[in-house]
Model the fold of this input.
Amino acid sequence: NDGAYGGGVKIVLNCHLVIGSEKAQFVPPEVKRGVIVPKKVIRSLIILGRQQAQICFTLGIPRIAAIAGLYPSSQRASEMLLIGETISVPEAYSQFGFMNKAVPHAQVLPTAFEWAHRIKENSLDAVQETKRALILAQQLGNFEHATIANSYAPEARRADKGKNIKEGLRAFSETREPKWKNPTKL
Done:
């Protein structure tokens, strides 16, 4: 709602959906405090333990560059990390692309709940597998490879044979709303 600083910016970068207040600001101040981002990751490895620190690493420089769509050149990510100045909501939305929607301050939670409800109306199998593919794409750095890899995953194969995909296609052909079943055990 208000500000995300340092690691908070990196947490925002790792979210699948970001709805924020028009008053929000994002501040990556590490260079202004003498902190080197990779050293911060190493310290996190010691403090948080290996698994959580690996998550922290994905929140760092590679994630910033990937979010901004900057491979192979990284001018916007460099600007963000080397200058360390506040990033406004319009910049976060249009230039860096890590914010989905800016709403009036009082509308942040109602909008987030409305989006959650819209997601909940979809097939949980499809939501889970789509989210898995998005995470895999982030890890691999290539959406096409992730899509192929995910399609061969046992979880995706089970979902492809589940009741919800059949119900969704049947509902579409009958021009009616689907009645989702409990998700397939993935």
